[in-house]
Design a protein that fits this description.
The structure is a homodimer.
Chain A (H helix, E strand, L loop, with lengths): L13 H19 L4 H8 L3 H14 L2 E6 L10 E5 L3 E9 L3 E8 L4 E8 L7 H21 L2 E10 L2 E3 L2 E5 L4 E4 L1 H12 L8 E5 H12 L9 E6 L3 E7 L2 E2 L31 H4 L1 H7 L7 H13 L3 H25 L3 E6 H4 L1 H15 L4 H4 L4 E3 L6 H15 L1 H9 L1
Parallel strand pairs in A: 3-6, 6-10, 11-14, 14-15
Antiparallel strand pairs in A: 1-2, 3-4, 4-5, 7-8, 8-9, 11-12, 12-13
Chain lengths: 413, 413
């Protein structure tokens, strides 16, 4: 407020106002699921005539469709039902992780329409090779989307590392340093589809994308606008959502909870430091502690879950120990940020039944406000819908919703 | 952006627009230090006539004063110089800490006009007694302010505890639980000044107030809009400023970095948990480790500084050890939050020369982006102007700047 030096009623030019209002109407239809022109007008505070003109434009852009009449419209007259289009523009998300690549196409309504996952070990593989593999998967997804009359408006690539300005600064578990991921991926995709217009490529950290998926699509965050998201994979990723916005930090590197120090003299972490949380509660540490091959990947996690379910003592104690460490580190983060909820994703979601009691116990003990236990169920499993590929696809969808004109102009160009 | 469902050009009513624009003009004058009507008009994007009318009102409110003519005005004509008033409304800040109470009156320009500090041991003393003592000090400050033709527009009380909704939920080092601090303080002040209009009382956590003082008045944060603030007192307080805004958290309890776990099995902390940072790097731990009486307060800290300056090995190793622990905890916070800078206040400021190398070393080692050492001097001593009493007074000043009409109406009422 103090820094807002704009007088009220700025004289924005007409094109800017129209562009803004097109997004306003589109988002109103999107958020309502279905709506009439009259309903939208009431909701957004514009005249019926203005809304009708905006809706015509959105129909032309192909981002809104008409779906017959309502049975009982406002003011006695039935209205035409509007929904966001189930065909046309979509988001394409690509998640490159340590032991898999996932690709997802999401339509404007937020529905998952294509999903492909390939289990591969990306450790020590050349970045260009990994990105070529991801591009192949993406090209297949674009094909499947076309069969459903969907056309990605862009690709968003999520990776487990520090991502900024189109570049992976470092991704310790992949072994990447300074990789121009957007350029290389665009190149690889273009090589596979030489006759197609190049798709805009953007990128982000994988935990950020997963946290946004949780915010946009997850059931666990219903009504929750500020939460800490923790995802257990080979690395331990994190993200903070504050008032419905992802906290990015001064350099875009916020959320790296996996490198919180558990023991300054502890085992060396891939990041170069010693005793990071990842070395105590990452997937490899969990599997090793339970006597399962640390490199067994998804099979190993399934085996750990099976053993925990059967009450195997070494599996239970491995999970409990990781839970304790997670709880200690999370208590520090909760004391610092005071979020409404903590969401656990990745392998932690699968192990929630055995992990949560230990995590919760440390939080109840160590969160200073004493509010942790008072305040209802604040430790939650992330939604299975809240994965990074879906969040990445969602980021493209949000772009179209935020400025449908930019999408239409690019599509026409 | 996605959640902004307001169409552009809202038809705000005239009174609201005028109220908003009065603040706009007042803040423009405040931020510039001095300005002409023409200069303000250019800066805020309103017409010269509109600004003149707004300035008349601000002169009437007594929040702006005229200071003669500029030698060379815009458009060839000399303009009248405007400044915020050096008399009239002011902010009154009260800091209640463990071993002292400080009171401060700040004028609209942000200048410290009255400052009183009383060294008292508040541990184990009844809250009503402590608040009565603080009210006596505040009443004296109000008297000194009146001698300078300043009248506090409100009182803001800062305390080392979890403060929300006018109540201290808990302040472990004071031994307070559920104290209605605003009501009790207002009562105590009214008892001392029965013939005066009651002042509005507000309250906040002490580290929050200090961090805001740093943001508003400190030199160390010049150009820095996102920082982590850590203050060493008997407790260790913290606050996060993000893009020029204090992060309050879901319940108002964000920033409690003093209760980050250093060792889960460590000594019991006053908060009830074990092994909190406060037990390793708080004032008492520092003094004890250096062989100085833990209860010696400010005298003890001065003695520790003197010994460190003389190269006393046990003083140096005590400070170095605390610095290491601070660095380990801060690296976790920096990894999570990715701030531009970390500011150390309280006793850490005094000990900066001997503390900073150890803190910096751990940060360079453990901040994952590798950006810590690359990115210039990110660990800084808080400004001596950045104390909690000043920040508390500043909060009142900001309120007047944000809505001078509310102040004038209350003053007239």
């Amino acid at each position: 407020m103090m820094n807002n030096l704009t007088p009220l009623e700025p004289k924005a030019d007409k094109a800017t106002v129209r562009r803004h209002n097109l997004s306003l109407v589109l988002r109103a239809v999107h958020d309502a699921g279905e709506a009439t022109r009259a309903g939208v007008a009431t909701h957004v505070g514009l005249t019926r005539a203005a809304v009708s003109s905006l809706v015509e434009q959105l129909l032309e852009y192909g981002v809104v469709s008409e779906w017959g009449k309502t049975s009982s419209g406002q003011a006695g007259r039935p209205g035409t039902v509007l929904k966001v289009s189930r065909s046309g523009p979509a988001g394409l998300g690509v998640e490159i992780n340590i032991d898999y690549i996932a690709v997802c196409v999401v339509d404007l309504a937020g529905t998952d329409r294509v999903r492909l996952v390939e289990h591969v070990d990306n450790r020590g593989v050349e970045p260009s090779e990994v990105l070529a593999c991801a591009a192949r998967l993406a090209a297949r997804a674009i094909g499947s989307a076309a069969d459903q009359e969907l056309e990605p408006a862009g690709v968003h690539v999520a990776l487990p590392g520090l991502v900024t300005g189109g570049t992976v600064r470092q991704a310790p578990n992949l072994g990447w340093r300074r990789v121009a991921v957007e350029g290389l991926f665009a190149q690889a995709l273009l090589a596979l589809r030489p006759d197609h217009r190049p798709l805009p490529v953007s990128s982000d950290n994988e935990a950020n994308a997963a946290a946004l998926a949780e915010l946009w699509f997850g059931a666990g965050t219903e009504g929750v606008r500020s939460f800490l998201y923790l995802t257990g994979e080979i690395g331990v990723g994190g993200a903070l959502v504050l008032g419905g916005e992802l906290l990015r930090g001064a350099h875009g590197f916020a959320g790296e909870i996996g490198h919180t120090v558990v023991d300054p003299e502890g085992p060396r972490c891939r990041c170069g430091a010693h005793g990071c949380l990842e070395q105590y509660a990452g997937q490899a540490a969990l599997l090793t502690a339970a006597g399962i091959d640390a490199d067994a990947g998804a099979r190993g996690v399934a085996e750990l879950e099976r053993r925990a379910r059967q009450g195997d003592p070494s599996a239970l104690s491995a999970v409990e120990r990781a839970g304790r460490q997670l709880g200690v580190v999370l208590s520090g983060a909760v004391n610092l940020f005071d979020p409404e909820a903590v969401m656990l994703g990745g392998v932690y979601r699968e192990l929630m039944d055995w992990l949560a009691p230990a995590v919760d116990r440390e939080l109840a003990r160590r969160v200073v406000s004493g509010l942790w236990s008072e305040d209802g169920k604040r430790l939650r499993a992330a939604s299975p819908l809240g994965d990074a590929a879906r969040g990445a696809a969602g980021a493209i969808v949000r772009e179209v919703l935020a400025d449908p004109t930019a999408y239409a102009e690019r599509d026409a160009g």
